[in-house]
Design goal:
The chain is about 65% helix and about 0% strand. The protein is built from four helices and no strands. The chain starts with a helix and ends in a 5-residue tail after the last helix.
Length: about 100
């Protein structure tokens, strides 16, 4: 884009693209056999796909809630989402206090 227009690419914080990219990234991540125990490779892929979709839906829900709560203030939303990442990880680990 910079060559064609002379302008830098702007990040528009698009939820759908973020959701798809996150789902794709989780799907292609190498997980340990203990995390997704399965008898067949096909079933393990299914479990990983379901997990990836769950993570992407969870992140999308958090973003929407954050946008509404912080009245679409981009700076505050980005700061809040940085604090949200450890909370989501803890939730998947079984700690739902945050």
């Amino acid at each position: 884009m910079k060559k064609a227009t002379g302008k830098d690419t702007e990040n528009l914080l698009d939820e759908q693209h973020l959701k798809r990219a996150l789902c794709r990234a989780v799907t292609y991540t190498a997980f340990s056999s203990e995390m997704f125990p399965a008898r067949t490779v096909t079933f393990k892929r299914l479990l990983v796909k379901r997990f990836a979709e769950d993570v992407s839906h969870r992140v999308q829900a958090e973003i929407r809630t954050c946008w509404q709560a912080l009245k679409r203030n981009e700076g505050k939303v980005l700061a809040a989402m940085r604090d949200c990442v450890p909370c989501i990880l803890n939730c998947y680990s079984g700690d739902h206090r945050e």
